[in-house]
Amino acid sequence: MALIRADGLSKGYRSGDSLVRALDGVSLDVPQGAFVVLAGRSGSGKTTLLNMLGGLDRPDSGSLVVAGHDVLRMSRDERAAFRLHHLGFVFQAYNLIRVLTARENVAYVLQLRGMEKRQRLALADRWLAEVGLQGFEHRRPDQMSGGQQQRVAVARALAASPDLVLADEPTANLDSHTGANLIALMRHLNEQQGITFVTASHDPSVIAAARTLVTMQDGKIVDLREG
Amino acid sequence: MFALAWRNVLRNLRRSLITVAAVALGLTSLVFLWGFNDGVHNTMMRNLQEVIVGSLQIHRQGYFRHPRLVDTLPEPERVTGQLHQLGVERLSYRLRTFALAAGADTSEGLVLLGMHPAMEQRVTRLAGKVDQGRFLRDNQEAACVLGKTTARNLGLRLGDEVVILTEDRFGSLAAEKLRLVGIISSGEMGIDRGLAMVPLGFMQRMLGMEGAVSEIAVQLTRERLEPVTVALRTSLDAGYEVLRWYDMYPMMKQWVELENAFYYIFLSIVLLIVAAGIMNTVLMSMLERIHEFGVMMALGCSRRYLAGMVLTESMLLGMTGVVLGTSAGLLLVHYFHAAGIDLSGQMASVARFYVNPVVHTEINTDHLLHTVLSVLLASAAAAIWPAVRAARLEPVEAIHHV
Ligand SMILES: Nc1ncnc2c1ncn2[C@@H]1O[C@H](COP(=O)(O)OP(=O)(O)OP(=O)(O)O)[C@@H](O)[C@H]1O
Ligand SMILES: [Mg+2]
Known about the structure:
The structure holds two protein chains of two kinds. By secondary structure, chain A is of the alpha/beta class. In chain A, 36% of the residues lie in helices and 30% in strands. Chain A is built from seven helices and ten strands. In chain A, helix 5 (146-159) packs parallel to helix 6. The two termini of chain A are 20 Å apart. The mean pLDDT of chain A is 94. The longest helix of chain B is centred in the N-terminal third of the chain and has 41 residues, at 13-53. The two termini of chain B are 24 Å apart. At the A-B interface, helix 2 and helix 3 of A face helix 1, helix 11 and helix 14 of B. The complex binds adenosine-5'-triphosphate and magnesium ion. Magnesium ion binds at residues 46-47, 168, 200 of chain A.
């Protein structure tokens, strides 16, 4: 069964007198364990689609089921709870809570889920080690490089064992070498742990890592290739 | 959330410290001003009660408005029994009428007040106000204490004879010759002039009214006044009236309440300033973190959680300020309670109105509580707008906010 089943998702933005079709009837099935990359030019609708999938934004029409949940039927607070229990997010930059250390950032979502303190700190340390950040547990975000911060974000997204991780340009603020490392890590976790990733990017190294490459243009999917 | 809120407060330490300092300073000054205000007021009210009125008086019903010699207490012993049951020991029997006092060549109308010398000294400080000679001593002796103005008007000196003329209970003329044993100088007009104090036993005998009492004056602490009044009013029948000092002399209490109302207005102005300061800090810190709020929403924080966090941050600022400000204020009040603030230079003119020239600060619990609670409330109110704004953020827009 598909983890994500999106059907005819459309979203328009009014800018002045004209209507921008950010999404124009997007249908997409993502199976469990996939590693999907959304590619396409700037403004093609990648971020908009990703936000829909994560229940951060609502489409004007269409249907969407994620992990068996009808996301569009949920209230705002239900969607927040849904994200907490089923999803992980990695954004372009500044993903971390500034006043918390790396370890606390990872443990934070576990705390929101009600995990007991010792357990969540231990789990956070394990995931930091997993993304290669052993020894950085007590660093605050401003004491880490951009690549290290993105790794912490990946560890945080994964620590709560989500059904799906959504990443929007996770490498955009990194140099190409660091970006390639990050995407290799994500790909590794996808293969090792079977976690489903949907990543929006126009970074060639990310596109190269795709197992499913979805190309968008003007709010439509124009190409879908299994790699 | 609590720990996170703390760190957010500490994140911009300088700004938070300035806010806390402002709250603390506001509260310190409020507490100290209350301390001064309450110190002056409580002393005034205590002086009024301890000079002669007492905290409350018990009469025959209607006596206070229309005092007549014959309207004495039905059963003074029963009232005393009730008072003892309530644990009240500081009470005094008095008999009151009008009289003419004649000195060497003039005479003057005055209030003739019979007091039990030993009982009276447990209730009022009249004995301490005696300037020349002594206070009444023996309950039966033919002695009298006069205020210094009356003594001067009558041309009397210590040891002189005073003739007192009055009506007894049947309306017949009664006259006695008494020795002036003491002259009082209290600073209060109603005492220094127009009052003659004589032993209760002597006066009862003079008027043929053995055992008669027209008022029982009782001295109580501030906290005990209301409960004792209520208890007496329920246990004594309609033949009695139980009047607190301010039922009899309401002016001072009204004056104190007026001044307190003024302080409450001042308090609300300080509160507005405090709330505006906290709101500014909390709103600024919230607006700086819009992106972070968006990320937290994506992680699954509910709107209520985020609003709660903003509220907690505001309360932490408020509470830290309250703790520091209250402590500093109470320290000041405590220090000047013992040391006193000497205003004798500035206050010569009001020294008469039961005010002491040296103010010993003290703060009434209700005033302290109201002040502390309203500052806490103000810091909660200050968070409402920032919290609502945080809860209303659209996740997508917040995340893209840089
Ligand atoms: N809040 C908004 N208001 C108006 N127009 C919007 C809004 N969000 C997106 N759009 C428009 O929708 C279209 C799709 O935007 P989207 O951000 O999804 O593109 P993208 O593929 O993620 O682009 P990029 O590669 O630059 O991130 C664009 O034309 C954009 O201008
Ligand atoms: Mg985008």
